[in-house]
Amino acid sequence: MAQITHGVRSVLSSAVVYDLTQRILGAERSRRILVRDYIRPEQSDLVFDIGCGTAEMLRHLPEHVRYIGFDLSQDYIDAARRRFGDRGSFECIDVADYQDTAHDGGADIALAIGLLHHLDDDRAAALMRTAWNKLRPGGRLITIDGTLVPDQSGMARTIILKDRGQNIREPGQYTSLATQVFGSVKTTVRHDMLYVPYTHCILECTR
Ligand SMILES: C[S@@+](CC[C@H](N)C(=O)[O-])C[C@H]1O[C@@H](n2cnc3c(N)ncnc32)[C@H](O)[C@@H]1O
Question: Read out DSSP for 129-167?
């Protein structure tokens, strides 16, 4: 697994500590911006959330979306089931092992929120193929991850390099992971998503 799970960062394996830390850093604000400007969901969309964590994204999606989430962490998936019950389905699976056995039609939206920087290139390629296979023609994959760019503040760079994920990439590197599979990829770099200095790379990939 390409993420650090020992030392001080091991406490983030607890769903409660993880959610609290995210909230303090501004994850709620970041989710609101993502939904408004990039995800743009419709009421009855089928949303496929890869690396869904505790599925907190569901709070920001329209009430009637159909939601499928999976994540590597059993603790996060248990928390998602307790919190959201029958609002979605939640499974503990590594993205490299995901097999689509459902006959629920193509997804309108696939999400990989804060996931690519946890994955090495092979797993990232598996993520891209999985999302492409699950999406209907015209459906979109939205990803967001910390990134390294020349004009960011030293503080942002320091915080990003402390992440549990061990595969922080430059915007061009994230983009080329996606263009191996998706014909249309729009890349945006933003410095204003969290309450702390941080730089994100957002990909909008259309099947
Ligand atoms: C930064 S968290 C983001 C969680 C969630 N998407 C959110 O926005 O709150 C990254 C998530 O990716 C999951 N993850 C890491 N490697 C994974 C893998 N190989 N397969 C599936 N999930 C993975 C972690 O367990 C963690 O929940």
Answer: HHHHHHEEEEEEEEEEEEB--TTS-HHHHHHHHTSSBS-
